[in-house]
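Q: I have 307 residues here and want to know how they pack in 3D. Can you give me a structure?
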Amino acid sequence: MEEIKFPTNESGLCMNEKGVPWEDLKIVQAIADSGSLAGAGRTLGISHATVFRRLGALESRLGVRLFERHRTGYVPTLAGDDLATTAARVALDIEAVERRLMGRDARLSGTLRVTTTDTLLMGMLSDELAGFQRTYPHIVLEVEVSNRTYDLSRRDADVAIRPTSAPPETLIGRQVGQIAQAVYVSRCHRETSGWVGPDPHLGYPVLERWMARQGVDAQCRYHVDSMLGMLAGVRSGMGRGVLPCYLADMADDLVRASEPLPELQTELWLLTHPDLRNTARVQALFAYLSDSLKARQASLLGTMAAS
């Protein structure tokens, strides 16, 4: 590559008077984080070829190599590591500015990103979010269904609706209910001695420990990484399983095999980032769900079980 002479900083990174565009910084950060062009492309939603072309153009413009290609992937040079660190810092600054600006938004319109679990969405929240959208038709809802750890500081979402007994200290919100759980079994397979349980990828150690204490973990022959998958397994007669009452009580082909289990009861929270607390659409969703979920308390607590 033909060398282009520009003044350099301590890492040897050539700096021209035009600076480095934010889009190019994101390319460098994505490659550094993923270690590959393909991984960077997936992160940014662009093709492998586009990442390759833009990286080459940036290196040519700066006159320095940013990454070395090894068998294990792309490894940043000193200059590349310097630029990737800068990109990460700039990203945090931009995300903080976006949160602060959104926090001043008094409009009941725009986009609201919500994250919740598949169980809550299918068992309860779809109806509530539909009612919210009818009430506020100019707010566009984007829902991410995930059991992974959520990061509202990075704008993964604006609002999280989660079962948790220990909400992150970096977030604010309100508890909107208690979720009861009980043991259920298929109505057609009541005599089964097998169990359906969580796969470790579900991240539900509390239930795993409960099953171990009850001595039923050894009888578990079907492990699933989602509560909806566990529900399907119990309904199919693959064994007994612990399920949220608000979800399993709706299934006519299931019957309870226990009372609600106090040690597995958990809190239901609405959470947001402090910078977003005054955003009109966030406040509207909090108020709407706080009111509408009050009518669901009997279902959440498992006091409406079918006989």
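Q: Anything worth noting?
A: The CA atoms of residues 136 and 192 lie 48 Å apart. DSSP finds ten helices and twelve strands in the chain.
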